[in-house]
Every structure is written in C-alpha cells, then in structure tokens.
Amino acid sequence: MVSNKNRLYIALFPSGVSNNEERRYHWEFLIGPKVEDKPRDPGMQYHVKNHPSTTNLLARIVNAKIEHEPLLINIFCNMMVVPNDPNWRCRTWIADDKIEQLARDYVAKKNEAGRYCKAEDMVSPKPTWNMLEAKEDVP
Question: Model's pTM, two decimal places?
C-alpha cells in the first residue's frame, strides 16, 4: 500500500547574500505532501531568524516521512532558539553536515543545468531530491 503521509523537507531559498558561500541560502523545514500535484500545495514552513529575501523556493530535500505530525509541529514550535549569537542562524538550525552538503550540491547541479534561468521554471514544481529513496522525485 502506498503511503501518502506528509513529508519533512529541507528547503533552500536564495538568501540574497552573494559574497559568502556559507550564507548563500536560506534554510527551512517544510511539512508538505508527498506528491506536489497542484500549483500551490498546502504545507507549512518552519524557520528561524532571517526570513528569506524571496519566495522563490530553489529545491527541496525529502528528509523523512512524518508519522505523527502534531508531535513534530509541537517540537518545532517549542524548540529553543539561541539568542544573542550571530552565528546561530537558519542553517545552524538544520545542522547536519551530510544534508547540508547534499543540498548545496543538488542546487548547484540544478543551477548549472539552467533550472533557474526561465521564469516558467520558477512556477513549476520544485526540484526535489528524495533522501529516503536516494533518487530525484522532481527534476
């Protein structure tokens, strides 16, 4: 039986910072449907600090199938943030070197392939790498 439970995604947006590779992207968690089949799928963004400078989602990385969504939402809403530390940002919140490198490489590959060059591509379903199945769900 196919499971249509929501997924936990890591989402990358342009940050607006161009002279610092570490800060090139804004990082968020997204809770959303397994299959993106509408122009605007329902979902929820969870992020800390510095809001993205744009709504142009670059890519998503499927990180988990959500088994108990209310519990996950509770964790996000009650997670401690680190106050008064300029080095604690959205990327730090995601904080997994393997996922971070995979996501950076994936967006770079899409950029090199011209995926973000045409306006119509920016309204198409977003490139999505599925870590659970080690495959690309949406090119």
Answer: 0.87
pLDDT tens string 39-69? 666 689 888 766 666 778 899 999 999 999 9
Cβ pair 65, 7 in contact under 8 A: yes
CB atoms within 10 A of CB 73: 14
Tokens of 31: 């809770």
Residue 121 lies in a domain: yes
d(CA 6, CA 33): 5
Kindly state the greatest CA–CA separation across the chain: 48
How many domains would you assign to the chain?
1
Range of the domain at 102: 7-138
Query: Which amino acid is it at 132?
Result: L
Which tokens belong to 102? 């995979």
